[in-house]
Inverse folding.
């Protein structure tokens, strides 16, 4: 019976969001209250669970996501992303243009959220297409594959950050494992697969060609790279030192503080405020206005994350989570594969990668307590599943189709297959790491 109730709840969630067009935050709240009533939770306990889940989930991720949005905003508005792209294209030329744009997508995909990165990079892609007379899909897909992988796999993007918090994973380790998996996924789904798409005829709208800033208006190349990659550049040496230094030293406590995601992101935003803001001639007030706009960009995402947290907590408070965990373990399917399958099923049904990941986490969370699955790898497995088979119910599908001016058939051949390759390679990488880590 618990499985039937959970299935009905997920179907209700899908119906409300996909068919009734209810906002996901409201849909999560309605389904959370409905499943609580169906499971016989007393009203005070049900309302307390909703408040607790929403508050705890947002409390653990809100700062990192907001700071990530601020960093992405200043990277985009300052011209640092344009400078990074120009520097790499100048260094590697047009012969390796696919690989160059893939690296650009990889680098700017770390601080920039997917939608921001997509809109920012599309004009750059089309400028290259028109300038060098190259096939648009062949050139653009590798960069967009990189952006998609960053969005699904790596903090500080919203879904991975929320999953790290829910599974009590280590953000640094998740990030490092995610990078190991991301590289082959991007290469196979990007430059390698795009070789088969050379003959797709696309006529992207000329109005999307970038009005590039003059060189004199851009931040310096070193400044652009360092400011954009600062979270990685801060985190990597700290994690390395933590691995070799004894845990009971004064230095270790300092490193523990510096390894906190909030501290890393706050330092990165502070440096970028100066290096990409004030030093580029912008007033502090203008930079703060940009940051205020960035918070508005992620406000709805934060509401969805909070709603998913409420749904998860109702499952825990009702006791259904224990029954679900036992039932899922009895299936004999390895937890990491199961997490991928659940996220993939919800992704195909709903279209939203973020909602797919968060909903799958709510289902898989109780199973983690009764299994020995690595929580860092579970974050990545669910993240990979949440990218599978983007199609007609995914906004990303239509963005790609309309910007590149493609037919539905060619969009399925290019975008949908690319997302599916990313998802499957991500799962393969997770399972390989799960086999290798105990041997190291």
């Amino acid at each position: 019976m618990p499985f039937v109730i959970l299935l009905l709840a997920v179907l209700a969630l899908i119906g409300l969001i996909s068919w009734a067009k209810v906002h996901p935050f409201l849909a999560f709240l309605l389904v959370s209250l409905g499943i609580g009533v169906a499971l016989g939770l007393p009203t005070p306990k049900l309302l307390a669970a909703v408040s607790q889940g929403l508050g705890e989930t947002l409390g653990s991720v809100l700062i990192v996501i907001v700071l990530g949005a601020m960093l992405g905003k200043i990277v985009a508005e300052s011209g640092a992303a344009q400078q990074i792209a120009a520097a790499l294209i100048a260094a590697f030329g047009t012969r390796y243009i696919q690989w160059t744009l893939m690296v650009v997508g990889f680098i700017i995909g770390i601080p920039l959220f997917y939608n921001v990165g997509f809109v920012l990079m599309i004009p750059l892609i089309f400028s290259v297409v028109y300038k060098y007379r190259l096939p648009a899909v062949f050139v653009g897909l590798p960069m967009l594959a990189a952006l998609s992988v960053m969005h699904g796999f790596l903090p500080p993007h919203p879904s991975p950050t929320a999953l790290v918090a829910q599974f009590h994973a280590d953000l640094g380790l998740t990030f490092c494992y995610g990078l190991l998996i991301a590289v082959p996924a991007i290469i196979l789904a990007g430059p390698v697969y795009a070789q088969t798409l050379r003959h797709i005829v696309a006529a992207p709208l000329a109005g999307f060609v970038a009005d590039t800033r003059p060189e004199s208006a851009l931040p310096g190349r070193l400044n652009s790279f360092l400011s954009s990659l600062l979270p990685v550049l801060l985190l990597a040496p700290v994690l390395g030192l933590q691995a070799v230094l004894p845990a009971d030293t004064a230095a270790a406590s300092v490193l523990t503080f510096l390894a906190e995601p909030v501290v890393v992101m706050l330092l990165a935003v502070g440096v970028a405020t100066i290096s990409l803001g004030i030093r580029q001639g912008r007033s502090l007030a203008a930079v703060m206005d940009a940051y205020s706009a960035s918070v508005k960009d992620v406000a709805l995402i934060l509401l969805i994350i909070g709603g998913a947290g409420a749904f998860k907590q109702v499952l825990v408070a009702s006791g259904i989570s224990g029954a679900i965990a036992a039932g899922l373990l009895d299936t004999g399917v390895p937890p990491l594969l199961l997490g991928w399958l659940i996220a993939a099923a919800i992704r195909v049904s709903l279209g939203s990668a973020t909602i797919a990941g968060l909903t799958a986490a709510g289902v898989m969370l109780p199973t983690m307590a009764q299994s020995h699955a690595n929580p860092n790898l579970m974050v990545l497995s669910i993240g990979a599943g949440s990218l599978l088979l983007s199609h007609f119910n995914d906004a990303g599908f239509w963005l790609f189709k309309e910007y590149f001016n493609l037919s539905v058939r060619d969009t399925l051949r290019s975008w949908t297959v690319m997302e599916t390759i990313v998802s499957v390679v991500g799962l393969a990488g997770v399972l390989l790491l799960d086999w290798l880590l105990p041997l190291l």
Remarks:
- The chain has a mean pLDDT of 80.
